[in-house]
Design brief:
The complex is a heterodimer. Chain A is mainly α. Chain A is 76% helix and 1% strand. Chain B has 2 domains: 3-239, 3-Layer(aba) Sandwich (Rossmann fold), CATH 3.40.50.300; 240-362, no CATH class. In chain B, a hairpin with a 2-residue loop joins β12 (261-264) and β13. Classes of the chains: A mainly alpha, B alpha+beta. The A-B interface holds A 185, 187-188, 190-198, 201, 205-206, 209-210, 212, 295 and B 57-59, 79-81, 84-86, 88, 90, 92, 94-97, 105-106, 109-111, 157, 161.
């Protein structure tokens, strides 16, 4: 080994050790666990090697429910939150008065304490002995019947979860998109204006391509973030998500490890790897689409 | 199409919120741009040239005054119906579109009876690409081209819808020196071939002088002088115009007129018939010096720069406003660089005198109008 190489490795050592110990080793371990059948964490023994864990997880109704929930969440919240963020950013970008105020208002959720947010959503949606919640009061006002959003029908619960997720991810997306929009040079719009370009065409032919890298970044991270959703569901529906039929894939993994019926690291590992496969596939598809649509 | 500007004024609200004072970018600007000519709008940075261009193309609305294209008053018309093409300083080519798509962009916007079929658009685009000589670059993206090529594409995009007036904002400032020279010839050729009335903005007097049919010298939003480049150079109306035109720049001295003679640093250097006794600024063009060992004007020699065709003599004088005096003399005159002093005679038609307060030109005798060399 050359001396300079040795030095380089020496400098890298802390990071390599740290990452190896806390990232690489556990990742490899997950892979190993997922193929060890009947693994017992107390005795550190297992019966054999095979795909039983995967077969079990894929036939577990709780897991299938979690996959369904996660997919619904992803399919609804990613487009809705990105689209909404784009609309709001366009609005913010075109107003002059009170721009800073609105920017602050829209960014507030990002810095708000999760507990406070949870409380607000309780007031909005939770049925108690005294009130049906703010949203139900509104529904009643227009002559509708109260809906139990927290313990009621599946669609109502899903609605609350999606609503919550969109609301939580919106500020960051708005922040990114407003700065992306602001960085598009006025000259392009002036040039387009002189050529008599319609507002819509300016948006689709100039604005969208110009901010497409940022938009793409938000979509990719949005997908990944939504696939990893867990804490939001817990905040809204409590820890027994399987009973509420509102579990997510990450929630399922957690339950398999530490839940009331937990203690199955093999199943948890298998589920985690299935999630990895899904996210990986979607990201690759995203990247392939982006090659054509994103202009760097 | 001729363009007439009448009393054009543009004020911007002050950035400083405390003072209500407005910033006057263009002030009472009136002149007529003849049909089919190339006009150079010339002035130092921040003098309102770009605002002027924005007013003509309609991106800005004037505070007062009218703009006429031919006989049509376009003052209140939005830019898209004025029929102007604008080339931006940074070209503003859409980076995600190819050259062809960039050139087609304005055509695709056309509506109503002006609407074109795809084939017509392509034909038009190819025609204009040929004119600016970028036919072989049509599939490239702007980032894959040199500055000069991007410049041509920008011109092609502005020309493709056959504007009545072509406006260019500092068209050459983003190019390197050699390319600038080449492109300005090109600009001239394209303008001649299309015959479109063209206004271009520049702070580079050499650029403006070399290709314009007419130049307009602006200072702080006010028109100082307009005319053919050589006329303006030979007959500046004030000290600003005299200083702004010419490389090397004009040499300015503090002087005095006594008994119809110009004195600089106590030396009687030139007859100025018809001028009363007063302190003046004297501007002497670099080519206005004649080397003469018995000359009337004595300067301290600093350096002699031989440039082949001619020789640049650098000297100093206590009354000179600048650091150095630069004079250009024919290379046939050998100057001994070891000498301490150099003496000149002056060509009367290359010497201009100006009022010390108003900096307006004071005319004398032959000078001003193009006289024969003394």
């Amino acid at each position: 080994m050359k001396k300079s190489n040795f030095k380089a490795w020496l400098y890298l050592l802390p990071a390599v050790l740290f990452l190896g110990f806390f990232m690489v080793y556990p990742l490899a371990d997950v892979l190993v666990y997922s193929f060890e059948e009947g693994y017992n964490s107390a005795s550190q023994t297992f019966m054999g090697v095979g795909t039983y864990n995967y077969r079990y997880v894929l036939h577990d109704p709780y897991f299938l429910q979690a996959v369904k929930n996660t997919f619904i969440l992803v399919i609804i919240t990613v487009p809705v939150s990105t689209g909404l963020a784009l609309l709001i950013s366009l609005g913010l970008n075109s107003i002059k008065k009170l721009k800073e105020l609105y920017q602050t208002v829209y960014f507030l959720p990002y810095v708000t304490n999760t507990l406070a947010v949870g409380l607000v959503f309780m007031i909005l949606f939770k049925k108690t002995a005294y009130t049906d919640g703010m949203v139900n009061l509104l529904i009643n006002l227009f002559g509708g019947k109260s809906v139990d959003f927290i313990d009621g029908p599946y669609w109502a619960k899903m609605f609350v979860l999606c609503f919550y997720t969109v609301w939580v991810v919106l500020p960051f997306k708005i922040l990114i998109l407003t700065s992306a929009l602001a960085s598009v040079k006025q000259d392009y719009y002036n040039a387009a204006k002189i050529d008599g370009t319609s507002k819509w065409r300016m948006f689709t032919r100039i604005t969208l391509p110009m901010i497409s890298p940022m938009l793409f970044y938000l979509i990719i991270t949005g997908f990944i973030g939504a696939f990893k959703a867990y804490s939001d569901a817990v905040a809204l529906f409590g820890t027994n998500l399987n009973a509420a039929k509102m579990n997510t894939i990450v929630g399922y993994v957690y339950d398999m490890l530490y839940g009331d019926s937990g203690g199955y690291p093999s199943y948890a590992s298998a589920a985690a790897l299935i999630l990895f496969a899904i996210v990986f596939t979607i990201t690759v598809v995203n990247l392939m689409i982006s090659k054509k649509q994103v202009h760097y | 199409m001729k363009v007439i500007l009448q009393g054009l004024t543009k004020k911007f609200p002050s950035r400083n919120k405390k003072s209500k004072e407005e910033v006057v970018a263009v002030s009472d600007f009136s002149f007529e741009i003849p049909d089919g000519k190339l006009i150079g709008l010339l002035g130092p940075s921040g003098c309102g040239k770009s605002t002027m261009l924005n007013l003509i193309c309609g991106l800005e609305k004037p505070t007062s005054g009218r703009i006429l294209f031919g006989d049509d008053d376009v003052t209140d018309l939005p830019p898209e119906v004025r029929g102007v093409g604008l080339v931006f300083q940074n070209y503003a080519l859409y980076p995600h579109l190819t050259v062809l798509q960039n050139i087609l962009f304005p055509l695709q916007n056309l509506k109503g009876d002006k609407k074109m079929t795809k084939a017509e658009m392509l034909e038009k685009a190819e025609e204009v690409a040929k004119l600016v000589q970028i036919s072989e670059l049509m599939e490239r993206k702007p980032s894959e081209m040199s500055g000069g090529q991007q410049q041509r594409v920008a011109i092609a995009r502005a020309l493709v819808k056959m504007p009545k007036i072509l406006l260019l904002d500092e068209p050459l400032s983003n190019l390197d020196a050699r390319l600038r020279l080449q492109t300005r010839e090109e600009l001239r050729r394209i303008q001649r071939e299309t015959g479109i009335t063209t206004v271009f903005v520049t702070h580079d007097q050499e650029e403006a002088m070399s290709i314009s049919d007419m130049i307009v010298v602006m200072k702080k939003g006010v028109l100082n002088q307009l005319g053919k480049p050589q006329e303006v150079y030979d007959d500046p109306v004030n000290l600003f115009v005299a200083k702004f035109l010419g490389t090397p720049p004009i040499n300015v001295f503090r002087g005095e007129v006594r008994g119809e003679r110009l004195f600089i640093g106590g030396e009687d250097v030139l007859a100025v018939p018809g001028v009363g006794d007063r302190p003046v600024y004297a501007g002497i063009r670099p080519e206005g010096f004649i080397l003469n060992d018995n000359g009337a004007f004595t300067c301290r020699l600093t350096a002699v720069e031989v440039m082949g065709r001619d020789t640049s003599v650098v000297s100093t004088h206590p009354s000179c406003e600048g650091v150095n005096i630069r004079s250009i003399i024919s290379a046939e005159n050998l100057v001994d660089a070891s000498k301490e002093e150099v003496r000149f005679d002056l060509k009367p038609n290359k010497v201009f005198i100006f009022d010390t307060d108003t900096e307006e030109r004071i005319r004398f005798g032959v000078n001003g109008r193009m006289g024969e060399d003394a």
